[in-house]
Amino acid sequence: MSLKKRPYDKCGRIRCQCKQKRKEKEKMMLREEKIIAYLKEHVGESVSSLQLVMYAGAYEGDLDQLERDDLFILNDEVHQIAGKNGFYLDMRHHANKFEGFPFHLDFIIRRKRAG
Fold first, then answer.
1. Is the dihedral of CA 10, 16, 22, 24 positive or negative?
2. What is the 3-class SS of 2-21, one letter each residue?
3. Which of 11, 18, 20, 56 pairs as cysteine with 38 (C-beta 3.0–4.6 A)?
4. Which residues 6+ apart lie within 8 Å of 62 measured at CB?
5. How many other β-carbons are positioned within 10 Å of the β-carbon of residue 85?
6. Residue 52 to residues 38, 43, 69, 92, 104, Cα–Cα distance (Å)
7. Predicted TM-score (pTM) of this structure
8. pLDDT tens per residue, range 56-71
9. Which residues, 6 or more positions from 97, have their beta carbon under 8 angstroms from its beta carbon?
């Protein structure tokens, strides 16, 4: 009986296949400048990452064709873009709760404090 060789990372830990597939997918075709413009205009307001992308018109494609894995990637990218550009997407009101998928949960758009 032969065992399949399992993929290992640099530290010798077994890699999760789903994370590997997620990394292999192309980055979302998001228009960063539209997301930033939306964030600047709506500081203090509440919106989800999926709504933000829809309202800002930042996705170059059909949102209805996205699968669940794509929506997780979209959510991560929105948070990364916000963080790189001095915004904090405050989701404290969802802390320690099991409410749903992160791309459907709302956050409050805040500016990061200088310092």
1. positive
2. CCCCCCECCCCCECCHHHHH
3. 56
4. none
5. 15
6. 8, 12, 18, 18, 10
7. 0.72
8. 998 888 888 888 888 9
9. none
